[in-house]
Amino acid sequence: MPTAYSDNIKIDFEDVIAEPEGTHSFDGIWKASFTTFTVTKYWFYRLLSAIFGIPMALIWGIYFAILSFLHIWAVVPCIRSYLIEIQCISRVYSICIHTFCDPLFEAIGRMFSSIRATVRKEI
């Protein structure tokens, strides 16, 4: 079943064996090379698929099953737990900042608010 990904990896004879425009071998050699390349690629892919297709499908199936299991039963609950706990801590942190830092920065701001700067150009 072709997908968008399999369209990107399509390899043709001209992509691999590319003779420049001005130089071509004999037509018979070119046709025999084309047929040999195409048939070899076709049957070797089928052979590799027959030998390794089922085991690789099994391996990737197990891998993605483990990945899904860990994501559903470990990652998402840990993240949600962290967000619940950090929400409580952020409230305490916010109260501490407003209690201790706001008065300090307000006092410093009032101290420096009376400073005026002027620029004079001397000739």
UniProtKB/TrEMBL annotation:
It is a peripheral membrane protein. The keyword Transmembrane applies. One of its GO terms (molecular function) is protein kinase binding. InterPro entries: Caveolin, Caveolin_CS. It is found in: Cell membrane; Golgi apparatus membrane; Membrane, Caveola; Membrane raft. One of its GO terms (cellular component) is perinuclear region of cytoplasm. Its main location: membrane. The chain crosses the membrane at residues 43-76. GO terms for biological process: caveola assembly; cell differentiation; negative regulation of endothelial cell proliferation; regulation of cytosolic calcium ion concentration. Keywords: Cell membrane, Golgi apparatus, Lipoprotein, Membrane, Palmitate, Transmembrane, Transmembrane helix. The keyword Plastid does not apply. PANTHER family: CAVEOLIN, CAVEOLIN-1. Belongs to the caveolin family. May act as a scaffolding protein within caveolar membranes. Interacts directly with G-protein alpha subunits and can functionally regulate their activity. This is Caveolin. It comes from Mycteria americana (Wood stork). The lineage of its organism: Eukaryota, Metazoa, Chordata, Craniata, Vertebrata.
